[in-house]
Amino acid sequence: MQNLMNNYIEVGAIVLFGIGFMTLLLNNNMIKKIIGLNIMDTAIFLFFIARGYIYGKDAPIVVGEFKGVDGYINPVPTSLMLTGIVVSVSMTAFMLALTIKLHEKYKTIDLREILNMKEG
């Protein structure tokens, strides 16, 4: 139980990922699926950024006196998550554009109705 309390950010990220995954699986509405995928993305970013932070070290921005290499956190995980955020926003825009095209063609964004139209 003490480990859960010490790693509460990681536990929150895992719970958030589960919420996004269930939203993605249980809804037929395309917008809700996109929201679920974005919640999952956010959970992954939160998890990696929380793991990349090292208590007692500063951000790798030298202001004043240089503290040595061990005085700063590694900037690579943070920069990778920044790249991931950009990719996530681009992917969301692409999925929303595809949803608009689905709505224009089938007049609905419900996947079950679209599949029924294609079968029937």
TrEMBL record:
The chain crosses the membrane at residues 6-27, 34-56, 76-98. Its main location: membrane. The keyword Zinc does not apply. InterPro entries: CPA3_antiporter_subunitC (IPR050601), NUOK/Mnh_C1-like (IPR039428). It is found in: Membrane. Keywords: Membrane, Transmembrane, Transmembrane helix. It comes from the Bacteria. It is a multi-pass membrane protein. Belongs to the CPA3 antiporters (TC 2.A.63) subunit C family. This is Cation:proton antiporter subunit C. It comes from Tepidibacter hydrothermalis.
